[in-house]
Design a protein that fits this description.
The complex is a heterodimer of chains A (257) and B (381). By secondary structure, chain A is an alpha/beta fold. Chain A has six helices and eleven strands. In chain A, strand 7 and strand 8 form a beta hairpin. By secondary structure, chain B is of the alpha+beta class. In chain B, strands 1-4-5-8 form a four-stranded mixed beta sheet. Chain B has a four-stranded antiparallel beta sheet with strand order 2-3-7-6, covered by helices on one side. Chain B has a two-stranded antiparallel sheet with strand order 9-10. Chain B has eleven helices and ten strands. Chain B folds into three domains: 110 residues, Acyl-CoA dehydrogenase/oxidase, N-terminal domain (Butyryl-Coa Dehydrogenase, subunit A, domain 1, Orthogonal Bundle), CATH 1.10.540; 113 residues, Beta Barrel (Butyryl-CoA Dehydrogenase, subunit A, domain 2); 145 residues, Butyryl-CoA Dehydrogenase, subunit A, domain 3, CATH 1.20.140.10. Chain B is globular. In chain B, helix 4 runs antiparallel to helix 5, helix 4 packs across helix 7 and helix 8 packs antiparallel against helix 9. At the A-B interface, helix 2 and helix 5 of A face helix 1 of B. Chain B: Keywords: FAD, Flavoprotein, Oxidoreductase.
């Protein structure tokens, strides 16, 4: 069995973000970087599948500068067998159609049985890449999965829908799944596995070899939302406060209607 | 010379930090208040992550990483819980390392491998009521009997005491020899008849780490339990403590970093006179000094660890690193309490615990005064 998991390196979301000088993305200086949260679920599930079937080869793919290799090493230490690094210093500027195009071009003809991605990245958050890869490879896809099972070529996944409803979906491999919070608890890479990770194959492929599609959209500009006024602080006697609160709730909200 | 972590060291830092923040930190206050050692969390989980044998070769159940990785692991654990940090340090540096350094091949397979894999926990019994900084004052005796040794005496202030399965114990085997020469090292396992535990210490800090008395009453051990040569126990103890200092220096570094982080976060949030207090130069200068001291300590700790990994002498460097890091921990934690003011003095915030925890790093595994003796005598030899 051949498995592919696609990951992205994103800034730690606790970081203080600034819009970069050219105005279409955040300034990537002085940030701490880590694996996109949803991709961690994807890696964990891919490793579990590999452990379940035994005879499997698991490739982790990431697009970006040399820096993304640090995050790929974590995926290797978690249990991926080999890494495919698509070298692209301008990856931040690629829109989802191009990113999916690069991944699809890499995966085409390699015979992956299951492709795992996160359901979205924490920084761009388009939620498009996984399903676009499936479309480009003419594979079925199941998005936002919160449970994953595999039995003799059939994937049985649970999807999360609005309002807490879940749907059980069966699909034949090969297929693409995009992973949502709640799917699993990603393992810590153990020390012996961290030591082994450095001996695993990590090939770099220039992005020019794989980028065959053009951008279909462009970010015009990026900005912080305007700051809204602070909250309303009411002061006075308790009885009077309650009356004022009720009238505000009646006038400005629907909770008492 | 390159001051940069390797990829593995970076991954190890990320992994241990994430584990420490998510799993160790949440119970740190409760464990401190109840003086509760959580074996599963503070040792079992470390074993699963491969931390209990970081520096030992794979053939003895270790992970084959270097001393900087070990320092980073103890530092990151101690950043959120100094008790967990010292559990690892005492187990690895004091319990397991002497077997690696002085054990025969057979002893390594018998005792080191289960320790490195974390199946068993290690501890070290040197200190006695009459022998602390002066290890030559050891009164515990081991007298030859049949095919082994009969051990009698008491060891005090033993970290991991009661919980550990494997103890390195020092006893006088030659009463006629000069102070340091008649001492030998032994491996004594929990459960050996005649080996029991005395009182558990009630401490100011590292309250979640058990500190117990070891009592030996006619405890018979086989002769193959001697570690190193007869009469060379003092050498075993001193070599072990050289490495132990790196562990405690890392623990102190972690406490200092934790206190600094808490102080910076608080200073950014806390508003007085309509401004976050971090905007006041009086606070900024304090934070700057704290951060500078922590960074200096870190470079010294990593330098000592680097030398240990390279196999070059590091006794003086580890003494300097331990002295610097422990005094930095005490200073920085005290300042952090000051910056947090009234809140810092409450148990609601972790800095008062860090201040209590920091103090022991100036005392155990060689007091600051002993470190100065080590450094001073190396300078004037």
């Amino acid at each position: 069995m051949k498995i592919l998991v696609c990951i992205k390196q994103v800034p730690d979301m606790e970081s203080k973000f600034k819009v970069a000088a050219e105005g279409t993305w955040y300034d990537n200086q002085d940030l701490a970087w880590r694996m996109n949260e949803y991709d961690e679920y994807a890696v964990e599930q891919a490793v579990r599948l590999k452990e379940q079937v035994g005879d499997a080869d698991l490739t982790v793919l990431s697009i970006g500068s040399d820096k993304v290799k640090e995050t790929m090493k974590k995926a290797l230490a978690m249990g991926c067998d080999r890494g495919a690094h698509i070298a692209d210093d301008a990856a931040w500027n690629k829109e989802p159609f191009q990113v999916a195009g690069i991944i699809a071009e890499y995966a085409r003809d390699k015979g992956f049985d299951v492709i795992f991605t996160g359901m979205q990245s924490q920084d761009r958050g388009s939620g498009q890449v996984g399903v676009l890869v499936a479309e480009m490879l003419e594979l079925p896809s199941v998005s936002t999965i919160v449970d994953f099972g595999y039995e003799a070529g059939t994937i049985i996944a649970k999807r999360e829908l609005e309002g807490g409803i879940k749907a059980k979906v069966k699909v034949q491999a090969p297929a693409v799944v995009t992973c949502q919070l709640g799917l699993n608890t990603p393992r810590y890479p153990t020390l012996p596995n961290i030591m082994k990770a450095k001996k695993k194959e990590l090939l770099s492929i220039p992005v020019a070899e794989l980028l065959k599609v053009n951008a279909r959209m462009e970010t015009a500009n990026m900005f912080f939302p305007e700051k809204k006024g602070g909250g309303l602080v009411l002061e006075g006697e308790a009885g009077e406060l309650a009356d004022r609160l009720i009238s505000i709730l009646k006038d400005k909200t629907t909770v008492l209607k | 010379m390159i001051f940069e972590l390797t990829e593995e060291q970076g991954l190890i830092r990320d992994m241990v930090r994430e584990f420490a923040e998510k799993e160790v930190a949440p119970s740190a206050r409760e464990r401190d208040e109840n003086e509760r050692f959580d074996r599963e969390l503070m040792f079992g989980r470390l074993a699963e992550l491969g931390l209990t044998g970081i520096v030992f070769p794979e053939e003895y159940g270790g992970a084959g990483a270097d001393y900087i990785s070990y320092a980073i692991a103890v530092e990151e654990l101690s950043r959120v819980c100094a008790s967990t940090g010292v559990t690892l340090s005492a187990h690895l540096s004091l319990g397991a390392n002497p077997i690696y350094l002085f054990g025969t091949e057979e002893q390594k397979h018998k005792w080191l491998a289960p320790l490195a894999k974390g199946e068993k926990m290690g501890a070290f019994g040197l200190t006695e009521p009459s022998a602390g900084s002066d290890a030559g004052g050891t009164r515990t005796t081991a007298v030859p009997e049949g095919d082994g040794w009969r051990v009698n005496g008491t060891k005090i202030f033993i970290t991991n005491g009661g919980e550990a399965e494997t103890y390195i114990v020092f006893a006088r085997t030659d009463r006629t020899a000069e102070k340091h020469h008649g001492i030998s090292a032994f491996v004594i396992e929990k459960g050996t008849p005649g080996f029991s535990f005395g009182k558990k210490e009630e401490k100011m800090g590292i309250r979640s780490s058990p500190t117990m008395e070891l009592v030996f009453e006619n405890c018979l051990i086989p002769k193959e339990n001697m570690l190193g040569k007869e009469g060379e126990g003092f050498k075993v103890a001193m070599k072990t403590l050289d490495g132990g200092r790196i562990g405690i220096a890392s623990q102190a570094l972690g406490i200092a970093q934790g206190a600094l982080d808490a102080a910076v976060n608080y200073a950014k949030e806390r508003k007085q006179f309509d401004s976050p207090i971090c905007r006041f130069q009086g606070i900024q200068f304090q934070l700057a000094d704290m951060a500078t001291q922590v960074e200096a300590a870190r470079l010294m700790v990593y330098n000592a660890a680097y030398r240990a990994s390279k196999g070059v002498s590091y006794s003086q460097q580890s003494a300097m690193a331990k002295l610097m890091a422990s005094e930095t921990a005490m200073k920085v934690a005290t300042q952090a309490v000051q910056i947090l003011g009234g809140y810092g003095y409450t148990r609601e915030f972790p800095v008062e615990r860090m201040m209590r925890d920091a103090k022991i790093t100036e005392i155990y595994e060689g007091t600051s005064e002993v470190q100065r003796i080590v450094i001073g005598s190396a300078l004037t030899r």
